[in-house]
Amino acid sequence: GSGDGQGQILQRFPEKDWEDNPFPQGIELFCQPSGWQLFPERNPPTFFVAVLTDINSERHYCACFTFWEAVESPQPQSHARNGEGEEEQEEASSPVQPAQLFAPKSLVLVSRLDHAEVFRNSLGLIYTIYVDGLSVSLETVIGNLLTCTIPITGGAQ
Predict the structure, then answer these.
(1) Please, what sign has the CA dihedral across residues 67, 44, 125, 146?
(2) Which structural domain, as residue segments, surrounds residue 47?
(3) Residue span of the signal peptide, if any (predicted)?
(4) Is residue 125 in some structural domain?
(5) Does 42 reside within a domain?
(6) What's phi and psi for 129, nearest 5 deg?
């Protein structure tokens, strides 16, 4: 009723925790710090990096790329009311269309390395493949990104 929701993890890579790098619990709370809400219009994509510190004082950089997807409103569209509380007249021939709402969807990359621009580019690539509906599976894209070599700063190209 209020428009507030709760985030949930739809898919993750790797599917099981690595022994030396467990999956951060509650990461969906960091994706939408203001809460998960539906909006009447599509917002532009956003990107930010949150730094989480674990119990061993190790930093985990959580890059979050959020975009908006259309969802059908679960409630019928209400009629507008004027200032006197009377319902405005509508044309009899115009059917009431369900309100279209937009829900946030976030892509998150968690790393112990602080490379915000690499994170932004990687998540942007995944987003582009997703919205363009390319026939490459998400698993393949993630696998290719995880196996690429990133040169060290000041090293040989």
Answers:
(1) negative
(2) 27-72+100-147
(3) none
(4) yes
(5) yes
(6) -65, -40
- Residue 69 carries which side chain, given as an amino acid letter? E
For range 3-12, the mean pLDDT: 78
For residues 19-34, b (16+ Cβ closer than 10 Å) or e, as one string? Answer: eeeeebeebbebbbee
pLDDT digits (tens, 9 = 90+) for 50-65: 998 888 898 989 999 9
Q: Is residue 140 part of a domain?
A: yes
- For range 37-43, the mean pLDDT: 91
What rounded mean pLDDT belongs to the chain?
79
pLDDT at 1 over 70: no
Question: Angle CA(12)–CA(49)–CA(105) in degrees, nearest 5?
Answer: 45
Residue 9 lies in a domain: no
Name the token pair of 19: 């022994």
The residue among 109, 104, 102, 93 whose CA lies nearest residue 36 is: 104
Q: How many CB atoms lie within 10 A of CB 67?
A: 19
For the cut 80, the answer to whether the pLDDT of residue 147 exceeds it is no
Burial class (CB in 10 A: 0-12, 13-18, 19+), 132: exposed
Tokens of 90: 């509508």
- Between these two residues, 146 and 75, which has the higher pLDDT value? 146
Domain count within the chain: 1
